[in-house]
UniProtKB/TrEMBL annotation:
Co-chaperone DjlA N-terminal domain ranges (all copies): 130-223
Pfam families to which the protein is assigned, alphabetical: TerB
InterPro entries: DjlA_N (IPR007791), TerB-like (IPR029024)
Stated name of the protein: Co-chaperone DjlA N-terminal domain-containing protein
Organism: Streptomyces murinus
C-alpha cells in the first residue's frame, strides 16, 4: 500500500516551488568591529530587493529590505547599529585621549609645582598608550592650557576645561564598562592625591570627570573617598 500524503507534504512541496530571493546592492564600505569575528574587519553596506521566486526563478517584486552590514571576512549580516561600536584602533585612540585629558585637567586644578603629581600623571598617560609622554611635556601643556583659557592654575574647573573633558569622555563612556569608567576616575584621583589631600579645585575637576563618565554622583563620592584610603 502506498503511503498517504498529508497536508504537511503538500505544504512542503509548495515551499519548494515558491520562495523568495534577495538581490543585494552595495551602497558603501569601510572598517568596523565585527561582533562575530571579534575584531576589526572590512564591511559592505548593502540594500536589498526581495522577489518572489517560482521554481527558483524570480517572478514578482516583494519590496526592499535592509540596509545591512556584511562582514567581508565571515559574511554575516548585521544591523547598521553595529557601526556605532568603534573599531579597536578607534577605541584605543579614544581611551588614550581620555586618559590624557583627565590627567591634564587634574594637573591644571592642582598646579604643576609639585613633582609627585606630574610623575603619577606621566605614568598614567604612558600606561594609556602615549609611550613618549614626559613630565616636562605635561607641565608645558598645562601651562599652555592655562594661557589659552585665561584661567589660573589651581582654580575650580572652568567652562573651557569642562568642555574639553566632555569632548574627550562623552564618546568614550558608552563603550566602557562601569569598572572601566571607575578606573579612569580613580587614575585622576591618584594624580590629585600624589602630593596630599584633594584641594577644592581638584575635587571639582574630578567631579566633572565623573559626570562626563556618566557615573552617579554617589559613586563619584564613594570612589574619591576610597582612593584616599591606603590599600
Amino acid at each position: 500500500m502506498l503511503p498517504v500524503r498529508g497536508r504537511d507534504d503538500r505544504a512542503t512541496r509548495a515551499l519548494c516551488v515558491l520562495g523568495t530571493r534577495t538581490a543585494w546592492t552595495p551602497v558603501g564600505d569601510g572598517e568596523f568591529y565585527c561582533p562575530g569575528c571579534g575584531g576589526d574587519r572590512n564591511y559592505q553596506r548593502l540594500t536589498g530587493r526581495r522577489r518572489l521566486t517560482l521554481l527558483g526563478v524570480p517572478v514578482l517584486p516583494r519590496g526592499t529590505t535592509g540596509p545591512v552590514v556584511e562582514c567581508a571576512a565571515c559574511g554575516h549580516h548585521y544591523g547598521t547599529d553595529v557601526l556605532d561600536h568603534p573599531t579597536t584602533r578607534r577605541f584605543s585612540a579614544m581611551l588614550r585621549d581620555g586618559v590624557h585629558t583627565v590627567a591634564l585637567a587634574v594637573l591644571a586644578a592642582g598646579g604643576t609645582g609639585s613633582r609627585a603629581p606630574l610623575e603619577t600623571a606621566c605614568a598614567a598617560v604612558r600606561a594609556g598608550g602615549v609611550d613618549d609622554c614626559t613630565e616636562e611635556q605635561l607641565a608645558a601643556l598645562v601651562d599652555a592650557l592655562a594661557a589659552d583659557t585665561g584661567r589660573v592654575l589651581g582654580e575650580p574647573c572652568g567652562a573651557s576645561l569642562t568642555i574639553e573633558l566632555h569632548e574627550a569622555l562623552d564618546p568614550l563612556a558608552p563603550h566602557l564598562a562601569p569598572a572601566g569608567r571607575e578606573a579612569l576616575l580613580l587614575q585622576g584621583a591618584h594624580i590629585a592625591l600624589a602630593d596630599g589631600p584633594y584641594t577644592p579645585a581638584e575635587r571639582d575637576a574630578l567631579t566633572t570627570v565623573g559626570a562626563a563618565l556618566t557615573l552617579p554622583a554617589e559613586d563619584v563620592t564613594r570612589l574619591l573617598a576610597a582612593a584616599r584610603t591606603p590599600s
